[in-house]
Amino acid sequence: MYMHDYMKVNSEGHLVIGGCDTTELAKEYKTPLYVMDEDRIRDNMRQYKNSIDKFYSGNGRALYASKAFSAVYMYKIAAEEGLGVDVVSGGELYTALKAGFDPSKIVFHGNNKSYDEIHMALNAGVGRLVVDGEGELEKIDAICKELDKKAEILIRVKPGVDAHTHQFISTGQIDCKFGFAIENGEAYEFIKKAMTFDTVQIKGLHCHIGSQIFLFEPFKCCAEVMMNFYAELKAELGLTLPELNLGGGFGIKYVESDTPVSYEGYIEAVSDIIKGICEENELPIPFIYMEPGRSIVGDAGTTLYTVGTIKDIAHVRKYVSIDGGLGDNPRYILYGSEYDAVLANRATDTPEETVTVCGKCCESGDIIIENCHLPKAQSGDIVAVMSTGAYNYSMASNYNRIPRPPVVMVSNGKSKVIIKRETYDDIIKNDIL
Ligand SMILES: *Cc1c(COP(=O)(O)O)cnc(C)c1O
Questions:
Q1: What fold, for 38-297?
Q2: Tell me: the pLDDT tens digits for 102-147?
Q3: Which atom of ligand 1 is least distant from the CA of 391?
Q4: If you ran DSSP here, which 8-state letter would residue 433 be given?
Q5: Helix, strand, coil percentages for the chain (3-state, nearest 5)
């Protein structure tokens, strides 16, 4: 049983998010329901922006990595908070443009962008394309000539820093579908080639070393490898790059034992490294981008479910079934991810038992939380699963033809639907009747 500090419990023992009683939200909008705390999202965004202002003289921009949760409303919030966004597909780009997002502050990623996607991006005036593969330069070149445009690009590289293995410098990272490796000269050769295209201008390099990272060390290591490479490019190719994109990957709290790094501390540490290497090598201090996704929306989201069937299998485990499952949260079945929850209608009751919270899909692996400590749950209780704001809605599916739940934004005691609940008609809308 864990809940975030920014949440409250009212006198009736109900979980309150953004000033809204979650049991009332469950009644009004039905369950399953994604609830997002708008103030928390804005606070998370401001932490990045303020830290760049404070430790890097504002010479950078946080880009919201919108794959974590892509919705028209999210791009509007990011715009209001002065962030840029990163998109990884035509669909995300389309959503951002529909939201009226300033295209010059959009960075477009992808290891296999189609001709149509690149065309759409250049035509819309997207700020930076992150080039990530042989053949992409030729596509960009052809489209630029057709549209009579120039493309400002970043090139994605693999710094050889592996944040997942706790072994920060590792050649294993070469085995990754994204980017060009620095250590085997692949990145150097590609950059040399990119310099020969007069339709593209290389603004800088990009790297992204992983996700849900709780340590400073890999980020610092990465900044160091990147800046040393910048020094090499200047010395060998006479290429001075004005920008550096350090990616995202900052961890958030899913369960009590998670210990996220402070974003401010991260930016301070990385700033020092960049400035130091620039000074040593007489390089200009680059404009930096960082790309937080999970840490913007993850802890701002909560999923409300209603408890249905309960099965207590003697000496094995107790299954508490809820009315959603892997369709709205596939992270357990994908990665074995951990979550924690409270009973929203009895948030102050002490936990009494350890249960498995499972979904209603036809898969035994359809589990949301294994070993969840909860008060004795009963049919009709509302389960509030913490930290579902990132990679839940954006990864949701209609498996078993279950409609996707709506997303409700809460702030100051008010709630509003930002994405509607799907209907059965939505489910069959592409079927030929
Ligand atoms: C996924 C991704 C991010 C965001 O990662 P988080 O762990 O959600 O912060 C940023 N940049 C790129 C290129 C990504 O692929």
A1: TIM Barrel (3.20.20)
A2: 999 999 999 999 999 999 999 999 999 999 988 999 999 999 999 9
A3: 8
A4: -
A5: 35, 25, 40
Q: Is the peptide bond before 351 cis (omega within 30 degrees of 0)?
A: no
Quick one: pLDDT at residue 168?
A: 52
CA distances from 388 to 58, 178, 350 (A): 31, 26, 23
Atom of ligand 1 nearest to the CA of 298: 8
Between the CA of 68 and the centroid of ligand 1 the distance, in Å, is 8
* In the chain, domain spans: 8-30+300-428, 38-297
Confidence at residue 216, expressed as pLDDT on a 0 to 100 scale:
87
- What pLDDT is stored for residue 176 in this prediction? 85
Name the residue with tokens 């979650």: 22
Q: What residues act catalytically?
A: 362
From atom 7 of ligand 1, which residue's Cα is the shortest distance away?
A: 249
Crossing angle of helices 186-194 and 217-237, rounded to 10°: 50
What's the pLDDT at 175? 81
Give me ligand 1 centre to Cα 269, in Å. Answer: 20
From the CA of 66, how far away is ligand 1's center (Å)?
A: 8
Please identify every stretch of the chain with a pLDDT value under 70, giving residue numbers as ranges.
Answer: 163-172
CATH class of the domain comprising 8-30+300-428: mainly beta
pLDDT recorded at residue 164: 62
Task: Report how far residue 195's alpha carbon sits from residue 180's, in angstroms, rounded to the nearest whole number.
Answer: 15
